[in-house]
Design a protein that fits this description.
- By secondary structure, the chain is of the alpha+beta class.
- It has 3 domains: 95 residues, Rossmann fold; 120 residues, D-amino Acid Aminotransferase, Chain A, domain 1; 63 residues, Dna Ligase, domain 1 (2-Layer Sandwich), CATH 3.30.1490.20.
- 32% of the residues lie in helices and 27% in strands.
- The strands form 4 sheets. Strands 14-13-12-15-16 form a 5-stranded antiparallel sheet, sandwiched between helices. It has a 4-stranded parallel sheet with strand order 2-1-6-7, with helices on both faces. Strands 8-11-9-10 form a 4-stranded antiparallel sheet, covered by helices on one side.
- Strand 15 and strand 16 form a beta hairpin.
Amino acid sequence: MRIAVLSRNPKLYSTKRLVEAAKARGHEVQVLDTLKCYMDIASLRPSVHYRGERLQPFDAIIPRIGASVTFYGAAVLRQFEMMGAYPLNESVAITRSRDKLRSLQILARAGIGLPLTGFAHRPDSTADLIKLVNGAPLVLKLLEGTQGKGVVLAETHKAAESVIDAFRELNANFLVQEFIKEAGGSDIRALVIGEKVVAAMQRQAKEGEFRSNLHRGGTAKLVKLTPEERSTAVRAARKMGLNVSGVDLLRSNHGPVVMEVNSSPGLGGIEEATGKDVANLVIEFIEKNAKPHHTRTRGQG
């Protein structure tokens, strides 16, 4: 097969591993810088051009689209979908999962466990917003934040009011969530491919930090999931419409709750923690499922 990887940086661990795995299985692979692709939109023969040339058709596309380029990256991927290429994750599913509020609303409607969550822009009553999530301590998140950025733990009611006032001055949309104290600064990343959790790791925040992101000094180790945790991860991925995703879970007193469903999960931490060849499993999935014009969402929002 001819496979394209949409990635800004071919030297990133995840991109390199996917290319290695695809080549090892006999496929032709090309890494394309998402922002350097440009498209012929109105033609009867939709096309994508790159470095002055029209790209030949690909059988499959692996999108590794960063959060900062979601809009343009989704447009490029959508163009490849129009041309008949099989997307590992579809453009509609990626934009759905990248919208924190929309993704939580979709999961809530499906009855999937979530932390108590409020959403606001310029609330009339800060006290009532705090009350929605059972008071402090609580976590505040800017909708546009990634990798733990724009996330603040307010340990007291007064601190929560101060942060909300600051967000209000930024003219920003933000989420207010209950703080799952019993998680102890750790979360679980379950990597889902198709209808199966293929690898899972527990990430622990460094001392004095509540965010467990590996980018912020967190550590990771292999973890065994309960049947309920596996089921929750698979259901969350399915509701987002993602074929490959990293589902972030917290262990709460009332069962697993989903924090986020990531459409471009990094492979480095989870391959190291679990010893699983996740990149090879991704290519295997493409081999079994790639067909021309084969999408699940068919452009639906």
